[in-house]
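Exercise (ungraded).
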Amino acid sequence: MAILRGTVYSDPDQVPALQRQTESWILSEQAKRQLKKRAGGKEK
Amino acid sequence: MAKSNSPEAAWALPLLHPQEEHGKRRLALLEAAYHIIATAGFEGLRTRGVAERVGINIATLHYYFPSKQQLVEGLSMLIGAKFVTLHGPAPAPSGLPALDKLRQEFADGRFYLSHHPDLLLVLQEFASRGKRDPQVQKVVDQMIRHWETNVEKIVSQGMRTAHFAQISVSTRSSGF
C-alpha cells in the first residue's frame, strides 16, 4: 500500500520496521492484548 | 507466484487472460508499452515503437488506442490488474481479519520488490511523469484514489471490530 508513496518499498530492509510501527500505531489496546494472549497460548 | 481469485480481482481476469483475438492483441500492445516504460521510461514510449514491438502497423494500433492518452489509461488498467491478481504469500492468520489484510499488503510489497520490480518501476515512472504531464497525473490520481479506498476499507473493518484504534478519516490513509 505504501507503494504509491514511492519511497518506503524502494528499500526492502525498511519493510519489517515499517510494518511493526504501523501495527503498533493502528492496533487497539484490546487487539494487542488479544495477540499477546494468542502468542502466549502458542508458546505453551 | 501467488495469484488471486478473489471477487475483487474478477474484473482483471478478462483483461489479463482474454479469450478473443481483439482482447489478446490489446493485451499484447499494453504489455509492449509496459515493457518499454519499464526499460526506457516514459521518455522512450512512442506509439510507433509499441506497434513495431507487436508486429503491427501504427494504423492498427490507433484502432485499439486512438490516442496516446488512451494507451496510458489502458496501461493504468493493466497495472491495476497486475496489483489485484499478484500477491505475496498469505501471512499466518492472526485471528484479527483486518490485521491479516494489512499484513497481506506488506507481504505484497515485499513480493513485488523481489518478484516484480518492473511493476514498481513502471509505477514510479507514472508518478514522476505525472508531475510534468497533467493527463498522466489524472491517471496517477485515479490509481491513488483506488489505493486509498482499499486502505479505508481495511481500516474501517478494523475499527468496526475494535481491533484498530479509532482514527480520524483524514489520517487513515495518509498515516500510511
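Further reading is listed at the end of the chapter. For now, observe: Chain B touches chain A at residues 94-96, 99, 102-103, 105-106, 109-110, 112-114, 120, 123-124, 127, 143-144, 147, 150-151, 155, 158, 162-165, 167, 175-176 (CB under 8 Å). Chain B has a mean pLDDT of 90.
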